[in-house]
Amino acid sequence: MALGPGAIYSPPVPRALYSRDILRLAASIPNLGRLFSPQASAERRSPLCGSRVVVDLVLDAEGRVAALGQEVKACALGQASAALMGAHAEGRTPAELEQARASLAAFLSGESDDPGSWPGLAVFAEARRYPARHASILLAFEAAAEAAQLAAAEGARA
């Protein structure tokens, strides 16, 4: 198949990248919707693909996530990541959210072969070979870690 002048060719994305597990997660994002009165919020965007995630949260008196809401406008990989983050964030500390973000980033970049202790992150193993997809996978964890840090700082001032 010949491409005409000015045509842009984008190689096909392998099916393994959008596995059945990724698609199932993407279709089952928990805690969808913004919180009415969050203690803190953070938004992350991927300039490459236009994906966007907003995370609202409230920390309890012990500094653990008591409530979480998220607005997710992302590709299937970003949605799958938001599903995993949202499913396991309640009860976590800001430090645990930051550790999950850092572990996922290291796993995706190849700095580590271990995705960390956050449940389910090994599902992104195939995506490690596609750096252009890493930003959208990290969005939910970046937003959650930032919102938790902001909420903790707000709580410390109160």
Tell me the overall shape: globular
Helix/strand order, N-terminal first = HEEEHHH
Order of strands in the sheet with most strands: 1-2-3
Q: What is the total tally of β strands?
A: 3
Mean pLDDT: 91
Overall SS class: alpha+beta
Report the CATH topology name. Sufe protein. Chain: A
Share of residues in strands:
5-15%
- Main sheet specs: 3 strands, antiparallel
3D architecture notes:
The structure is a single chain. This protein is α+β, with helices and mostly antiparallel strands and 158 residues long. 40% of the residues lie in helices and 15% in strands. It has helices spanning 20-26, 76-88, 94-109, 131-157, and strands at residues 40-45, 52-59, 65-73. The protein has a 3-stranded antiparallel β-sheet with strand order 1-2-3. The longest helix has 27 residues, at 131-157.
How does the SSE layout of this entry go?
Elements: H1 20-26, E1 40-45, E2 52-59, E3 65-73, H2 76-88, H3 94-109, H4 131-157
Antiparallel strand pairs: 1-2, 2-3
Helix pairs in contact: 1-2, 2-4, 3-4
